[in-house]
Amino acid sequence: MLFFGNDKYKFSWNSFSIMLIFTGNAVFYTLETMPYYIAMTLTGIAISVIVNALRFNQEIQPTNYIVWLTVIYSLFFLYGLFFLRAGSFDWDGMLVRFAENFALYLAIKGLLNERNGHVLTPFLISGVISAVYIVVRERSDIISGGIRIGSSLSGNVNNVGFNFGFVALLVTWYYCKTKKKVYLFILMAFAIIMLLTGSKKAILILAMNLLMIFIYQKDRIGTWLKLGIAVAAGFYFVFKVPYLYDILGVRIETMIATVMGRKMTSLYSYSTDMRKEMMKEAFGMFLNKPILGGGYNYFRANTVTQYEYSHCNYTELLCSFGIVGTMVYYSKLFSNSLYILTTKLHRNIKYKDIGIICLILVVEMLVVDIATITFAGQSIGYMPIIFSSAALDFVRMKRAFGLSCETEN
Fold first, then answer.
1. Distance CA 109, CA 181 (A)
2. Which of 37, 184, 262, 335 is the most exposed place for a label (fewest CB within 10 A)?
């Protein structure tokens, strides 16, 4: 029973709100299913705001996350409306994303308070819905093999890999906390889907899952052996099994060869090569206007390629908003990390679990942003910041009131 039963699993409006918004973004943000996305998202936002209105006034108030969120979206609107260099500014879509990010924070914070730290359920349900949807819609491709899956879900297949990756990290976190084998089996199922998307980001996120397991079990000698076997098995399946090699292995090989400057016909990745060139080009534009940037879509207005963005969050931010805008955008991520490290939260017996997952999420976002655009994308791309901010504010509240933060037994 996922919603009904004891206090950890009984129905929660906050949980329902998270499930609606996350599932809407992960599954239904396509031209074909846009009405479902709009209905689910707006309903989830409304539920979150209504349910947490009283708590917002009495407990949450203008936290630094909400201040940060307001500041960066004000920056986006300022540049998009007055310093637009090419294309059009999707102001209504940006407004919805702001509302989603705001609502997700309120709902996650509210659910943490209700469940005293237990927050996996809505994300797990969304992950299962996404998995079932993709299997039903793309079963022929899965059976035939050699084809990257995920095109039926929101965004491109790389985004699909990231979406499953976020849920997988939470599942791994709960496995580490509870040692319940069911979470390990769920993780394996999500890992298979992530690999079948052919997303190289998925490999990095899976590596972070292994890192989290190691952090929790590093004092056990057998952990080294188990992780070594898992890594070796992973490499074997990706590079030696034709089914996975045709989807992912060959893409990793060509990426490495291209990054190293080898442009042999059989080991050349046009995608990787173009990403390198676009990042160089965007960085050059940033150097021309380093402080405040060149304006919204500055790369698109000046690039010699036919792409609309530089495919890297760092270079796109620097190019458009300069050092100032980039520092503002990443300030919340680094302030969360600073709080954890200065308070040694990851070593505190009461708050260790939250400290570890928040640090892992920081690393995840910093790595993934190398090869994707987060700031102008869907709200799921903000999840590492949203989740860690809500979790750390939950800890601050517990400490302020002298309460203990019990982990799930």
1. 27
2. 262
